[in-house]
Amino acid sequence: MNTLRATLRQPRLTRRTFLKHSVATTVTLGIAAGRAADRAESGQPAAHTGSDSPSQTKVIDCHAHLDHRSRSTWEADDRKLIEAADKLGIDQLCCSILTPRRPATAEGFQECNRWVADGMQRFPGRVRGYCYVNPGYRQEALEEIRRCVEDHGFVGIKLYHEYTCTEPVVFPIVELAIELNVPILQHAGHAHYFLEDQPRISDGGRLAELSRRYPEARLICAHVCGGGDWEWTIKALRHAPGVFLDTSGSVTDEGAVEMAARVLGADRLVFGCDLSMTASVGRIRGANLSAQDKAKILGGNMAKLLQRRKS
Amino acid sequence: MIIDVNAYLGHFAFRQLRHNTAASLLQWMDAKRIDQAVVSSASAITYRNAQAGNEEVFAEVKSHRDRLIPFAVLNPFYAGWQDDLKICHEDFGMSGLRLYPKWHNYQLSDRCCLDLVNAATDRGMVISIPVRVEDNRERSWLANVPDVPLDELAALVKACPQARFILLNGLGYVKSPLGRKDNGLPANYLIEISRLSAVLDNEIGQLLAGLGAERLVLGTGMPFSYPDPALLKLEVLDASQSDKEKIRRLNAEKWLRL
Lengths: 311, 258
Fold this sequence. Notes:
The complex is a heterodimer of chains A (about 300) and B (about 260).
Chain A: H1 2-9, H2 15-29, H3 34-41, E1 60-65, H4 74-88, E2 92-96, H5 106-122, E3 127-132, H6 138-152, E4 156-159, H7 171-180, E5 184-186, H8 204-213, E6 219-221, H9 230-236, E7 243-246, H10 256-264, E8 269-270, H11 277-286, H12 291-307
Parallel strand pairs in A: 1-2, 2-3, 3-4, 4-5, 5-6, 6-7, 7-8
Helix pairs in contact in A: 2-3, 5-6, 6-7, 9-10
Chain B: E1 3-9, H1 22-32, E2 36-41, H2 50-61, E3 68-70, E4 72-73, H3 81-91, E5 96-98, H4 111-122, E6 126-130, H5 150-159, E7 164-168, E8 189-192, H6 203-210, E9 216-217, H7 228-236, H8 241-256
Parallel strand pairs in B: 1-2, 2-3, 4-5, 5-6, 6-7, 7-8, 8-9
């Protein structure tokens, strides 16, 4: 394990480090890396996005968080996140920072996004940014998204549970996401009881409804393995091809990934951890799917989503 | 060699389980290089008469006793538990119990429960207690079963110092007396790692430092759970190979007297 850790902390994408990284990824994520090694040995480009080949997949965590700086340990915690990603063979983490208390104020989400931008500078090539907004602050939210995406290279929008995603107040956000070609990661969950602390939480059904209204939007339904009844969520999304499903969460129920792949297709699944690192990597490693499908889930699908962004 | 102290056979009332027969579980264990597993009835969690689940497990593991170690599920408030305990131990060769106080609606501090724990201990059986069966957020509309609080487990291990416990599917031990040195508790319990973190907060690492490697044990939760997350935790854990070997196998061998 020392070798694995030491290997992945090194600067990335040299021929030598790519070889080592491929081996580490094979060990932790269970995808084939033999052809990657061959390609790197032959001097061809190493890891890159946009391929579904297991040997070329860059592993992208579609759902991560940096710490809010009200926590005294934020800097060390952020480093721990990168170290954990190193250990587990995760190349990139798409991160947001949420305000400790909701609903977020405009000043609150703007501050969070400044810290994400700083995180992208502190961990170049590892941290990519989601712009978190509260749609209730329409003008500030729209300006913030445009500023983050166009000026700071953020790759998507993060929405929490200030509003259910089908409420009209959210529509301008979705329309801007379509204009900028960035995905929206929507916090979601479906429980068979009322969530008193999250009365406006979205779920797979709401996201499917939103997708019918905006079929060109690219929506990500967050943490299917940490959002209540995952079987319900998967079934609710069957006929919503514009909605991708984030596999993250702390629940390690066997069969969740396979059912999602069977019902939605592996092309609509995106790997995430939401800070449940070993649970989330382990469920993909354990899923009874082809290496090709795992490669799509681990990074291929997310890479395609991110490539749509207007530069 | 790997020993899994947290595996199951049979059906669960609220979700389809795969790999839940002895044959398919063994195939899965082979694929994951797990040599032996402690199994109990998943069906008995919701059967009124848990003994029917024990009978099913006994029949399933009969020809696989070298690899599947059956534990009994008993409810100390159900008629005839003393007879069932005797049958499970003497006739079925079950070397331990799994208790579900919240699913079976009793308190670990109830006299009946203490009687069962003491009777099983007199027989040399291990007592294992899953903190949860499934995540409460995914619960059915029919059942709202809370996790077993760690302070209730701490009170039980203190009340039964002669017993040997294995605590399954829990987390948050580092904030409980169960996870601290000099906690005033007997060293009569092992903590299973399937829900503990090995990175970020690294609860496993904290327990290694706080309690010692002798007190941790590997379990996967299969077939409820993918076994890979638990196995992966052990892989990425910053610990010596000898400590990992204790967690992977040696502690379970000693506790289960294999």
